[in-house]
Design a protein that fits this description.
24% strand; 43% helix; 4-stranded antiparallel β-sheet; 244 residues; alpha+beta
């Protein structure tokens, strides 16, 4: 049965006044400072994933046990212990031993420094009067924290999810994560899938992030309109309101 591993790592960003011509940043922020800009950074990560392809294992060239066990490796950001962290979500078919974990870390570091991350850190992220350049890799104090996410839903649940959906407007009061989960629970129970509720709830409570929680809920009950598009429109509206 598939499970998920989270590879968390520190973020750092160079902060500039918007439209500045200076080559020197006004400040350098850590993950704790960047937490207020989680939505903008998350959106930028999703846009980068759309450009490169979300699954970094498509670029893994070695034919070894890591290639066999790690089915997907997707990047996002998440809150952990009061900081915004880079997060690589690895879907694995079986456990990884210590050598295999090190190989995944080595591969991720290469992607952060020279591959996926090189293009990402060169693209400005705009938020109000500032623009930031976010780095998934930095040369000082860089290390991974690896966490197991609770068990992923089985194949049958994923197949059922395709036909089970719920209508939610994330811009309104129903966009609160407790309201979204509550509606998902009711939808599952009405469909005779109440046994999946505890599993979904455990995964949500271990997700550390509103955006990751929505990802998990969407695995069980499809959110319509598409929640990623809703969040993107919400972010664009906030940006437009700030610029008025």
């Amino acid at each position: 049965m598939e499970k998920k591993l989270l590879f968390l790592s520190p973020l750092e960003a160079e902060m500039y006044e918007r439209n500045t011509e200076s080559d020197d940043p006004d400040d350098v922020w850590s993950g704790r400072d960047l937490l207020d800009y989680q939505e903008e950074i998350w959106k930028a990560v999703q846009e980068r994933n759309q450009w490169t392809g979300a699954n970094l294992m498509d670029y893994y060239s070695k034919n070894d046990s890591v290639k066999e066990k790690v089915k997907s490796l997707e990047l996002t950001v998440t809150e952990h212990n009061g900081e915004l962290k880079g997060c690589a979500v690895a879907t694995v078919s079986m456990g990884l031993d210590s050598q295999e974990l090190e190989k995944v870390k080595e591969y991720l570091t290469g992607q952060y420094a020279d591959g996926w991350g090189e293009g990402f850190e060169q693209t400005p992220i705009l938020a109000g009067d500032i623009q930031m350049y976010v780095h998934f890799w930095n040369w000082k104090n860089f290390q991974y924290k690896v966490l197991w996410e609770t068990e992923s839903p089985g194949k049958a649940a994923k197949e059922n999810q395709k036909s089970l959906k719920m209508q939610i407007d994330l811009k309104g009061p129903d966009g609160n994560i407790y309201a979204v989960e509550g509606k998902a629970i009711r939808t599952l129970c009405e469909a005779g899938r109440g046994k999946e509720v505890d599993e979904m709830d455990r995964r949500i409570r271990g997700s550390h992030s509103y955006y990751r929680a929505l990802d998990i809920i969407n695995e069980y009950v499809r959110i319509v309109p598409d929640y990623r598009k809703q969040l993107q429109l919400k972010s664009e509206k906030k940006k437009a309101d700030r610029e008025r």
